[in-house]
Amino acid sequence: MASSITSSGSKTLRVLLLPHFATGHIHPFTELAVSLAASSSPNATVEAIIAVTPANVPIVQSLLERHSAATVKIVTYPFPTVEGLPKGVENLGKAATQADSMRINIAASTESLMRPVHETLVRAQSPDAIITDLLFTWSADIADELGVPCVTFHVTGAFSMLAMRHLMMEDAAIDGDDTVTAPPFPTPQIRVPRTELPDLSIFRYVFGKVHSMQAACFGLAVNTFSGLEQQYCDMYTGQGYVQRSYFVGPQLQSSESPTDDSKSQYIGWLDTKSDHSVVYVSFGSCALVSHAQLDQLALGLEASGKPFLWAVRAAEKWTPPKGWEKRVEDRGVIIRSWAQTTAILAHPAVGAFLTHCGWNSILEAVATGVPMLTWPKFHDQFVNERLINDVLGIGHRLWPHGAGLRSEDYEKHELIPADDVARALLTFMHPGGPGDVMRTRVMDLASKSHGALAEGGSSQQDLHRLVNDLMAAKVGRS
């Protein structure tokens, strides 16, 4: 075990964090590591260590560079050899095909591949506590063998945790129209077409292991805050799914403007636009979209006449329709490198966010007060869409109900035509339209988001409680 007392006499808590191989997981884990390190006091020092595979180190480093005052250590462990997966592809954001994404996810959740390297890593680091991603379901056993507490960090919200738990249950009702209804769930009732859910035969098994681990763990930390999901936070705690819960979000990258030339260039471009006039488009770091659909989106953005900033995954290898870039060059910008979404959304020129409903993106929109047009792609994003639109009223569905088949499998998702994209943007961003109404609501949530992280706020209190509980567990083992 790590030493209990530092040279200055303060207690030390050594925490090892284990994120999944996805940028959308690594980001909040890194921000949590920074928050833990920053929570140190004269009487207690938190040593935060984040463990990733070699190809994922630059992601962590780029985030830590924005937190020069915080001390977080990076350690590495080998990515498993996976048949068919190109060497160096160790992150869902680098997966060029759905098959590669599946290979990464299967590797991450295969105990025979991952547990040995994690056991070696944990024993070498000798932490006082482990904070693990939910896919690494063996982490609780490793922690138990070493006699240290294990906390699961859930990088999505309480609403989706509850909904997915119920939707994946054996008694989730499947209606005649092949729609799954979550039992029992507070208003509004959650009904999701099966095409918008992961393969139930596979994920019921995976989720069963996840839920067993959550129940066995010392506690559960969630990247949300009570002002956003109060009743769902209360439900998850009250229904006894976990021993302890800590709602510590939003764990987000800084909204400060980028400083390097390539990134400051698009912030400079936004400076030339009117308030609330620009639509920002981003489908996150790992959502796959067909080239045909990207073409229709491009043409829809053009037809809308709205200024736009569009982040396109480098792995897409997509070329816009002939002549399109020339036609929109005066009012559109494509970003093919990593985009600092929080800084973009915080700019007053941005009036709408066309999003895939990934949880990090939702938190970024909430923190910056930007209403959303929703276009979910996979996994819990279709459930997150219900929270945004039906519960919170801060977003609107891009493609209306009944317009066509939406699917978690992007190859089966019907093509959304350019005309529908343009129509949705024009309606949403019309003066006095849905976007303006929703902006008022999301600005109120932005205030609550900032308050949660302020000293004395709900998330700050839960973060301190997490550190204190882990420190007490360590002292109890002494």
From TrEMBL:
<keyword id="KW-0808">Transferase</keyword>
<protein>
    <recommendedName>
        <fullName>Glycosyltransferase</fullName>
    </recommendedName>
</protein>
<comment type="similarity">
    <text>Belongs to the UDP-glycosyltransferase family.</text>
</comment>
<dbReference type="Pfam" id="PF00201">
    <property type="entry name" value="UDPGT"/>
</dbReference>
<dbReference type="GO" id="GO:0035251">
    <property type="term" value="F:UDP-glucosyltransferase activity"/>
</dbReference>
<dbReference type="InterPro" id="IPR002213">
    <property type="entry name" value="UDP_glucos_trans"/>
</dbReference>
